[in-house]
Amino acid sequence: MPDWVNGKGDGDGGGDIPKDLPSYLYPFGEEVKGNLTVTVSITTGGAPPPAGATATIPALKYDKRLLVMLTQDDCKQAALCRTWATINDKPLSDNPRGYYHYLHLAAGDLPPDAHTRGKTLASTDGAGNDVRFAFTFTLLPASSNMNKAPSVSTGNIYRFNMRPTLIWSDVREMLNFGNSMAFHDVQLPLAHNFGVYQAEIARQLGGRVCKVLAIPNGDMSYEQAMLQYDPIKIATGEKGHHLKLYPATVGNDLSKRIVHRFFKDGQIDAFKGWIDERAAAPYDSRQAMHMGTHNMPEDDWTGLLTWINDNYGRDGDDSAWFPSLEEYYEYNRLRLGASITPTISGNTLTLTIVMPLGDSCYYPSLSLLAGVSGVTSVTASGNVTGLSWAAHGDGTLINIDCRRYLEAQARHYVERYEKSQGQTDLADAKYFVGKLAPSSSKEQLKARLP
């Protein structure tokens, strides 16, 4: 049994993390690279598809109307035990001495007042499946604190004091759930150390690289360093003349752009007001809401996320898409770069789609608006691992996901539930299985769940 279970670690974060921890990381480094060609076949039950029928790609995934994003700075432990926990219905503590790492959660070692809110926070994919909110958290790869194991199950309440940073096992679990990471504070020289930090990130995360920069303290020297370091594709900052996103009218891939965000720690009502204003604006002039924060303390940030869910997410009007900045960047890039070739045979419209994934695309997915109604079935090529569809307006909304290991990920969370029998683990297992395209394997996984 690893040392952390027996409580042999230093309560302030002592030794290196043991290598035999029960952890999982989606194999991001093995994703498809270059151009990916997929086919989607849409069959109607009555009249054949009209001549010239094809599909378009909406400005926002799932054809949502409101873009909401969140960036959390300074590699704070709260990104896991406050933000991620709130979204995914994991335990929360209202006590200032109520922080935990993923290793505590995995061991069932939690603050005494730990409780859950009883629901996850999500929108839907337009076809009845949840899409949980996702966010961006920053890393400090040069900090030794990210490699220090917490004390677990020692009986010492001080193990739940706030620690200086996230640790790598926290990062892995949050990435599994669709969240993304960003560079933040980097030692000089900036451009050189981006590469040094990137090497550590890739080593810790199975080859996944960091493509986002959250500019610290408005320091615009980071802008010049970003331009010199190709792997950073997009940045965000709260100062200067940064880009304010109007998703309906974005006509370029946003490469090397700095997207504006708003910082109002402790002013939750301001965010609510701004989101309401955006939702009320005409769609073509509707600005995205990109929020920035640090520690996500007990000032009702968790309440704000729940409010978004209840008003603009799954339990409200379901108009919001709440992705990480990296996911939005990738979707927009694929939207503008993908080609769609339609062919019609009898009652079937087949779309051949070429997706320019590049060398580090971790969100190889698209939504399609097909100009066909009365659809009875939608099928896809084998490299489409996630698939959902539904009637949508005068046509059909189709969502495709091409992650190579989507089924293996779902199986992992089914097995995690079978071992723990925990209700939040059951919800996770159903969530990941629900992402899969119809198949006998999906049905077998569903049959293992109550």
Task: Tell me what you see in this structure.
There is one protein chain. This protein is α/β, with parallel strands linked by helices. It has helices at 3-6, 78-87, 102-107, 168-176, 190-204, 221-228, 268-280, 301-312, 325-337, 406-420, 423-434, 440-447, and strands at residues 34-44, 55-56, 66-72, 122-124, 130-132, 136-138, 180-182, 212-214, 234-237, 257-260, 262-263, 289-293, 320-321, 339-345, 348-358, 365-370, 375-380, 386-392, 395-401. The strands form five sheets. Strands 3, 6, 7, 11, 12 and 13 form a six-stranded parallel β-sheet that branches. A four-stranded antiparallel β-sheet has the order 14-15-1-17, covered by helices on one side. It is globular and about 70 Å long. Mean pLDDT is 92; it is low at 1-20.
Question: Can you give keywords for this protein?
Answer:
single chain; 450 residues; alpha/beta; 6-stranded parallel sheet; 4-stranded antiparallel sheet; 12 helices; 19 strands; 28% helix
Walk me through the topology.
Layout (H helix, E strand, L loop, with lengths): L2 H4 L27 E11 L10 E2 L9 E7 L5 H10 L14 H6 L14 E3 L5 E3 L3 E3 L29 H9 L3 E3 L7 H15 L7 E3 L6 H8 L5 E4 L19 E4 L1 E2 L4 H13 L8 E5 L7 H12 L7 E2 L3 H13 L1 E7 L2 E11 L6 E6 L4 E6 L5 E7 L2 E7 L4 H15 L2 H12 L5 H8 L3
Parallel strand pairs: 3-6, 3-12, 3-13, 6-7, 8-9, 9-10, 11-12
Antiparallel strand pairs: 1-15, 1-17, 2-16, 4-5, 14-15, 16-19, 18-19
Helix pairs in contact: 2-8, 7-8, 10-11
